[in-house]
Amino acid sequence: MKKNIAITLLSISVIVLGMFLVITGKHEKKVCEPEGKHKAYHEGSLNAITQCELGHFEIKVVDDKLEGWFVGGGQDTNRSVRVPSDRIELSVFLPDGTNKQLTLSASPISLAGEKKDDCSHFEGSAGWLKEIKTFQALGKVFFKGKWQPLIIQYPEGYDRD
Amino acid sequence: MSFWRIIFNSIRQHIGSSILAVVSIWLGVALLIAVFSLREQTHKTFTEIGTGIDAVLGPKGSPLQIVLNAVYHLEEMPGKLKWTYMKEVEKSPIVVEAIPFCTGHSYGGYRVNAVDRRFLTDFEYMPGHKFSFAEKEGGQGRAFNDAKEAVAGWEVAKKLHIKLGQTFNPVCGVKSGDPIHVNDFIVFVGILAPTGTPHDRAIYFPLTTFYGLEGHGATTAKMAEDEKYREISGAYLKIKRIRGGAMHPGVQDLKFGIDQSTEAQLVVPREVLPRLFSIIGWVDYVFIAVSLMVLALAGMFLFVALLSALRQRRRDMAIMRCLGATRRTVFGLVLSEALIICVIGGLLGLVFGHILVGIGAEQMKMETGIQFSGLYVCTIDYLLLPALFVIGTLTGLIPAVQAYRMGVLRNLLPIS
Amino acid sequence: MIVQLKDLEMIYETWSEKTKVLDIPKFEVDNGEQVAVFGPSGSGKSTLLHIISGLLLPTRGSIEVCGEKVHELGEAQRDHFRSRNIGYIFQTFNLLQGYTALENVLLGMTFSPGKADRASAKKLLEQVGLGGKMKRRPYQLSFGEQQRVSVARAVANNPKLILADEPTGSLDPHNSVEIIKLLKEICKEHECSLVIVSHNMDMISYFERTVDFKKLNRVLDTKEAVI
User: Fold this and answer.
1) Residues A134/A154, Cβ–Cβ less than 8 Å
2) Which run of H or of E encompasses A24?
3) Does pLDDT of C59 surpass 60?
4) What is the per-residue pLDDT across C151-206, written as a single tens digit (0 to 9) for each?
5) Does domain C3-222 have CATH number 3.40.1480.10?
6) For the domain that residue A99 is a member of, what is the CATH number?
7) A36: in domain
8) Which of A51, B111, B308, B360 is the most buried (most CB within 10 A)?
9) Does the residue A1 lie in any domain?
């Protein structure tokens, strides 16, 4: 008898707790990225510059145009990092074994007060960009006071870690 | 005598504990309804109001503070930004228009905001809704033309008994004790039709008036004449739409660019509001937990009351069995009693909860500008009766099973 | 025959022993008959009534009441049978204290087929002399009045058989006589048979057919109660 009473009281508590959990479970979903994976602000692919804590070069290819942004390291991928260059030269390695050259020109964000040699945003275009789905590229950039190799893997992004 | 009559007779026999059980369920349910109704209405209204504004260009600082000030007329702006910067932003191909504003004044406890006239003619406070002065919608007068004119929100006009032609002196600040512009008389030329948003709780006058108010100094006065020196608190941005009515995706690039500057930031209210709800979300959960605990206690009280009543009514049950009631019948009588008590308490709680919200709605509207309604149907309204049915069944089950298993002869009084 | 019992045995079992309380080779009651069964207290008379009404199943034997083989019915079927065919009167009245006199009588009709008829219940109470006390609860009635309510309740469902278990056991001699007379009159009027058990020889004398329980129940005769 006492056991039955205890079971009933427990059941009521469980139902009420269940209601609480169901009701409060409908909270807004947070976008949780797996630890170690950084979010690309422009929904492009992030390529770590040397290591991901230093900074990234986010690139996006639409049709024949390639856009790139130099951004912060770690979780600071929404913060731009300006580089003192007006162009970036890239050697592009295509899946069919051929190589191409691509020049990215500075495209300053005026609202951020950027200028041609103090700029985080670069653009370049080439007809062959339309045809390809994947490539690798190499270049270099003066980033945060030092020349750094620029390694690009598209579309998966590059992170040596 | 009907089955229901027997149940009500039984409830009447232990009327004290029955009433207490009903009242405790009533209170628990009323609390739950009130909490949920307010929670859902708050979320809905905040979100709806927020989505009327595509984006706010504001100074560097807390995005939440900017939304609270620009959209809900709460808090203060964390700084100022240059007019020329706003004009640069307005040149963006995806910006339809930028409507600047300056905050920081008050009257009678209500915010007085300096705005571009387009705020009254072009601004959509909710998607597809613009301000109106039409009498048939509850408005009066017209938008301001002159520097010394103002319009009042509907709620302000009602509370401060504002009439057209009446003048006021704005207070330079939003706290009590802040200085008054005693030599600046602004005349009310319009009262906005009610919108059901916080805009009902503010007064609006022209930007030129703001810069020219006595006591602001020569630097501020110069802002009226020369854009180069002009500063504003912020600007409401209208962004281009793409097919389907969605905001142009370029807004993210625009936001990125502005956010990188030292001048300003772009805040999209619909992105910031979830953060607001997550900050106050735990308060919701505490209230919900308390309500559910009250309901659980009510259920447990009912269970104990039924069990105790059954002990006293064993003989009655045995007599009914003698008269021809089956085991199933007495089981049903006890279970139905529990369900009826739960449902009565629940229905009373449902009504009372909505009444509570209705009574509190006026006060809450005064405090927040947000319209609440006692007639709003929330999620719990749909879940309540099934949940009460489950709780009633659970609380009545063991006493009902005991009644079912009860021996007839040993529960009658001794016989020869 | 309204009641036919054959080779009835009732044995109660406990951990340590078995006790035979009834051993009745034959017992019959005719339609419309009024029978008084007399015997000492604790002799098993009430057990007999319980078995006839279907409240208890015998260990062995056949029970046919109102044309139904009661010993073959399931418990729920016996409950239905009892609601339709049997009216029960107890020594201690067994009225529901939370109900008025009228409601107690109505309860007698509730579990039988057909709607509980308020008008009939009122008429019955008038018939037993309680027309002016319908709204009183049992604690507001004398013992005699309570037993009258019990009588009215017993006939409320138009039973074919009324079983009265020491109906005058809690009453004074004057009320006892009144109740016995009332019972006989009501049974005659409603055309139902009556089996009454009692140890009070004064009351037994009002009945044409009497049965000595000591002779009916072989257990008492042979004193072989404990097996």
Assistant:
1) yes
2) helix A2-25
3) yes
4) 999 999 889 999 999 888 888 888 888 888 888 888 888 888 999 998 888 888 88
5) no
6) 2.60.40
7) no
8) B111
9) no
CA distances from B366 to B137, B208, B284, B360, C20 (A): 21, 30, 21, 10, 84
> In the complex, which subunits touch A with 3 or more CB pairs below 8 angstroms?
B
Residues B122 and B130 sit within 8 Å (Cβ to Cβ)? yes
Q: Which positions in chain A touch B289 (Cβ < 8 Å)?
A: 20
Q: Which chain B residues are Cβ-neighbours of C116 within 8 angstroms?
A: 1-2
Average pLDDT over residues A58-64: 93
Rounded to whole angstroms, what are the CA distances from B138 to B48, B125, B131, B190?
22, 17, 11, 11
Helix (H, G, I), strand (E, B) or coil at B171: strand
Q: Best mutation site among B260, B378, B381, B391 for testing chain A: the one with the most A CBs within 10 Å? A: B260
Taking the domains of chain B in order of start, what are their residue ranges?
A: 3-45+281-411, 55-267
The partner residue sitting opposite B13, judged by closest CB among C90, C98, C108, is: C98
- If you search the block for the tokens 């409908």, which residue do you land on? A26
Question: Is residue A116 a part of any domain in this protein?
Answer: yes
List, as ranges, residues 161-200 from C with C-beta within 8 Å of B: 165-166, 169, 197, 199
Contact B391 A80 (CB under 8 A): no
Query: Please, are residues B409 and C55 in contact by the beta-carbon 8 Å criterion?
Result: yes
What is the number of domains present in chain A?
1
Q: Do A63 and A129 contact (CB within 8 A), yes or no?
A: yes
> For B165-214, how does the pLDDT look when each residue is reduced to its tens digit (9 = 90+)?
999 999 998 887 888 888 889 999 999 999 888 888 899 999 988 988 88
Distance to chain B for A148, nearest Cα, Å: 23
Q: How far apart are the first and last CA of chain A?
A: 63
Check CB contact under 8 Å for A12 and B296: yes
ipTM here: 0.89
Question: Predicted confidence band at B111 (pLDDT cuts at 50, 70, 90)?
Answer: very high
